Amino acid sequence: MHETPDDLTELQQRIDASYASAGDHIRSIFRPELRSSAVDLARALTGIFVINLATVTAKGEPLVAPVDGLFYRGRLFFGLPPRSLRARHVRARPSVSATHMEGELTDHGGRCLIVHGVAQEVTSGHPLHAGYSRYVMPLYGLPVPDDLETHPDDGPREDFTGFIEPRRIYAQGY
Questions:
Q1: How far is residue 42's CA from residue 102's CA, in Å, rounded to a whole number?
Q2: How far apart are CA 79 and CA 57, in angstroms?
Q3: Which residue has the higher pLDDT, 86 or 51?
Q4: What is the value of pTM for the model shown?
């Protein structure tokens, strides 16, 4: 786990607020006895896993496709490749949604994480940049530079690395 006590408290508050304002349908699926806590998510979501990320086109149309997801400091991180259409979408219209599913949700199994929120880009100088880079680079077989904190940004990037600042988050089975 990479989460601080404050990260876990903040995430749990967001989870609780999401359920408190959820409609009947969401509450019928994510029943209290099956819901996952912030600690459950931090313990279970390690390494790289697939999320389905939805972005919005200039015409307001949703566009969803799978991308790598990573959980770090209580946030759902993702990356988009250089020159990708979705990287341009996220920068122009940062409202996004993501899901991570494993199996079918039942009383006895399945996992589901749903996050609705705003994408926040993480570049050098961002408070989470160095720590996240130290976590993710070895997962992809990349060397970790010694100068992550002091290395200046090389200017505008074509790829997008960031996380979803959640407005709503629902989780079960973790």
A1: 16
A2: 18
A3: 51
A4: 0.89
